[in-house]
Amino acid sequence: MATLRRAAELFTHLVWAPAEHERPGLARLRAVCDAWARYLVEERETFPGGCLFATASIEFDARAGAVREEVARLLRVWRVRLAHDVRVAIGEGELAAGTDVEQVVFELNGIFLALNQQLQLFRDERAVERARRACERLLS
């Protein structure tokens, strides 16, 4: 549990903090995507197994208990942050009025789960550019 909480602090510092000063909406979502990709590429020494939350969610998703609940809670907090900026982007007219907020959040998470796998399992450095293109297509 302490490891998860410390990882959440680091993730917040490395991914959210660099983006939080950006204007809410698409500007902040794009900054989050850039920081998220950097985190997966540059923090391999801190997280040699890749994103700790991706690993923990896979390891504990079928188990009951406090660790599973904490992983789910932390991922829900992240999804709420992303959803907020998607809603702001819709409200500002940066995304179409009919945009499905939960779908965008789902796809953003999917992009970065795929990026983590491509980097960790396949050592594919080209995956970062693929993830960036996917984010840009999603957020256009």
From TrEMBL:
Protein name listed in UniProt: Tetracyclin repressor-like C-terminal domain-containing protein
Pfam annotation, one family: TetR_C_13
Query: What highest taxon heads this organism's lineage?
Result: Bacteria
- Keywords annotated in UniProt: Transcription, Transcription regulation
Which Gene3D superfamilies does this chain map to?
Answer: Tetracycline Repressor, domain 2
Q: Which organism is it from?
A: Nonomuraea soli
- Pinpoint the Tetracyclin repressor-like C-terminal domain residues: 25-134
